[in-house]
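User: My advisor asked me to double-check a structure prediction for DNA repair protein RecN before group meeting. I don't want to rely on an old file, so could you generate it fresh from this sequence?
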Amino acid sequence: MLESLVIKNFVIVDHLELNFLPGFSSLTGETGAGKSILIDALSICLGQRAGTDLIRKGEDKSDITSTFTIDNNAQAISWMHENAIDHDGSLIVRRIINIDGKSKAFINGTPSSVSQLKELSEFLVDIYSQNSHHSLLKPSTQKEILDSFARSQNLASEVKNAYSVWVALLKEYEAFAKNRESFINELEELEEKYKDFNALNFSLDGWEQLKAEHKVLNNSAELIAGTQQCLDLMDNTDKSSINEKILTLKNYLSSLTKLDVKLAGKVTTLEGSALELLELSRDLNHYLHSLEVNEGEKRDVESKVESTFNFLRKYKITPEELDELSAQWRDRIEVLSRLLNESDNRDKVDEAKRSYDLLADKLSGERKEAGLKLSIQITDKLNELSFKNAQFQVKFSRCEPSSNGNEYIEFLIATFLGAELRPIQKVASGGELSRISLAIRVSSITDVDVPTMIFDEVDVGIGGSVAEIVGKLLKALSHKNNRQTFVITHLPQVAAQSDNHFRVSKKLTEDQTSSDIKLLSKEERVTEIARMLGGVEITQTTIEHAKEILG
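Assistant: Sure, here is a fresh prediction for DNA repair protein RecN from the sequence you gave:
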């Protein structure tokens, strides 16, 4: 429910704070007083496009804040949770329009986007302007009204999703059938490539080890000669070998320690070096024996290196790319193999079609059942609105499967006895459309629709007893499921039915025009209804008539 609206520097509004009540509220006032400012300000607060021309003259920004209670609004609460915005049963929406054309939006103090405001507004307020009935001429609107009345929105969404899945699979299958030959050729090439790859037993680490091994084998003669030379320098029997020289050095130092004990540590160091050189000699001997060339092993290594290089050259790739590319080849082979299993793919298409058909048939059943009920209810309301002997019918025409189901939905009407049922747009005039729109809205409303509804001069073109009936219908609508209903009207018969009556007035202050909205007391309401009945000069007779209308 809309609790309050605070408007600052908006069009001809300087500063206005409005508090609203449950039930049916009317807004009246002279032409040009600014009755539609409420709707315009609220619409902009909830995400409608706004221009700088709406900022009050002489000001640098407009600031609009609306407050709602959402305790019983499950859809709004769910949206708040999904968008991680805290709430305590209260919702405050604020929008600021700056003179430079930029705007800021906040939901419960959290900076938000205009698109978020629009999403949230769908669960808060429905606004029906005097021209909104033209949307009823659209098949999409008629379908939405019927699905809402049938409480089939979720099922309609499932049908839409099932249709998307079926069509996507069908397109994939048709593309496959068209390109089957190219898929077969691609699969054969990939399988050959992947077979050659598997024969390499390739890994990047293994490739680096193989290159190192190949390098050693190719240089084995040089390595053997060099290692042998190192061993000769260390271990030959003549006095020029390293080991002999160290032994001579050790003996010489040992004799010197008898003269100075401080040299004993140097002897110990030399003994350690001698042991390390001995260990190095053993290691080099082992290494030398390992260098004995196995010609078979050498051929195997050379063959592996050559095969890998040939593979890389053939497919123009580097070793670093091969691991990732091979995984892509494998995945593509799986996809193509699955696609080329024509029976399996066709089965998936058929299964998706069966799923769609089941859901679409169920939706058709719910729509047709609801269509009968809605046709009766709207016909009754049309008769109340002076369409005597009128008839309304929801027509279903079988059509090709679509995201909207298997039927085309159309609202038909006959406005007098014996008239042929025809589409609304081919029968009704502008004034009649207003009444037809109201009858449809009142009849199709459900407890899952938004809690606040605003009607902006939807009663245009009617008067007398029909106007009174319109007022009673709007009042009944507000009392249905504790809904909050607003109407902007020029008709006293409509305003008299409201639970709360607001008067919009305009005044001139310091060369600027300002608009004001006030909740009327019982006495003030009599005066306003009398003004609406009698025009400029209000007589006692008009006053009495106003009291009579108000009851």
